[in-house]
Amino acid sequence: MRIPLPNAIFALLSLAVGILSAILLTEVGQILNLPRDWVFNFYRYRHGISLALAVVTAGLLVQHFRGRSTSNWLAGCFAAAMLACLFFMNLFAPYVWLRAQHHTAEFISVAEADSLLAAEEDVLVLEVNGDARAYPRDWIMVPHIAGDTIGGEEVVMTYCALSNLPQAFTSQPGQRPSEFRVIAQVNNNLIFSDTENGELYQQITGQGEFHGTRPKPYPVQRMPWSAFKEMYPDGQVFHPQPKLMDRLTISLFNNALVDHYLGDPLFPTLSMDDDRLPDGEPIWGIRVGEQSLAIPQSHFGDADRLEHLTLDDRPLVIAWFADHQTLGAFYADRDRQALVVTEVDPYGNSNAGKLERVQLFPGVLWMVWSHWFPDTEIWPAG
């Protein structure tokens, strides 16, 4: 049978668009180093593109069954390929593979979690108005997103394994209820959507790509499990219920990230031209206004440290708590009047009163941080 030329052209074009669209929203697109703008532009128009592809596919199949312009086998393969493209474009990452838990996250007590976690387990910590949550890194690695009411406020924790970066935001950045979903990653950093409001966010910048919205950030701490249970004995611990595919994904992630964390990026989308620190060095990033600062993990040793610095004309105090293996960063001013801070504890209580936490980027890999914030300074200098 001979396929009419117009049908063949429509079929090939629609298949090409479908494959490209599916690639853009899967890791394959980042392996191929496709431009970041392509990902965002496709996402913006994905519903129209999906509808057009569905209509063309349906039309071609109707013509086939009316005129038998090709074999049923070939028509079936075409239909299956288009369905697969539509599935990967719209459903695979957010609804099947990396299922966010914005409104469905479950938590257990510190006592319950203590039998499940080793003392050195890496946990991401949110504390709001004295109410604390711990998110073990391995437990949030698959959903990437977990929300809860913390200290009377609706907050969502996000985690990007490629960047090794936890960031927390208000759970409702707009006037309408929101629903955060994982979409993909670009330049080795998570992008997630608010499916209710049509916004797309880059995690490391906290920037809305379409409407320019910036959801309120919440300072995140990072520490071993032993430190969290000591500091926040009444806190709660994120406890997902992983399915078989989730367990396989965790194993896949951990194996794939070994060399990545040593400085050999999993996806070739980073600039990699800033050699001031080793590529895989985990740093404590700080960003105040438009100024960025990287504090190498290697700067801290086995003793407590209290140091002062200024960023974007605001005095800061950073404190390394050796017993807790965590860094605290606080504003050393009140009503823009500088404070004399000589001591501070892990909760931010100081000789000058309670200090406001600075937003930290705890543990982010240097090669990712320097790519997104190429003008960053390193502290201490030299």
Explain how this protein is built.
- With 382 residues, this protein is an alpha+beta fold.
- It is built from 11 helices and 24 strands.
- It has helices spanning 5-24, 27-31, 36-44, 46-67, 72-90, 92-97, 110-114, 137-140, 225-231, 244-261, 366-372, and strands at residues 107-109, 122-128, 131-136, 145-150, 153-160, 165-170, 180-186, 189-194, 199-202, 207-208, 217-218, 220-224, 236-238, 282-288, 291-296, 305-311, 314-321, 326-331, 333-334, 337-338, 349-350, 353-354, 360-365, 377-378.
- Strands 1-13-3-2-12 form a 5-stranded mixed β-sheet. The protein has a 4-stranded antiparallel β-sheet with strand order 4-5-6-11, with no helix packed on it. It has a 4-stranded antiparallel β-sheet with strand order 7-8-9-10.
- α1 (5-24) runs antiparallel to α4 (46-67), α1 (5-24) packs parallel to α5 and α4 runs antiparallel to α5 (72-90).
- The termini are far apart.
Shape: elongated
The number of strands is 24
Q: Count every helix, treating DSSP H or I runs of 4 or more residues as helices.
A: 11
Largest sheet: 5 strands, mixed
Q: For the terminal residues, how far apart are their CA atoms?
A: 73 Å
User: What is the mean predicted local confidence, pLDDT?
Assistant: 93
Which residue ranges are poorly predicted, with pLDDT under 50 across at least 5 consecutive positions?
A: none
Radius of gyration: 24 Å
**Residue share in helices?**
25-40%
From the structure provided, what is the oligomeric state, counting identical versus distinct chains?
single chain
Strand percentage lies at: 25-35%
- Alpha-beta content class: alpha+beta
Strand order of the largest sheet: 1-13-3-2-12
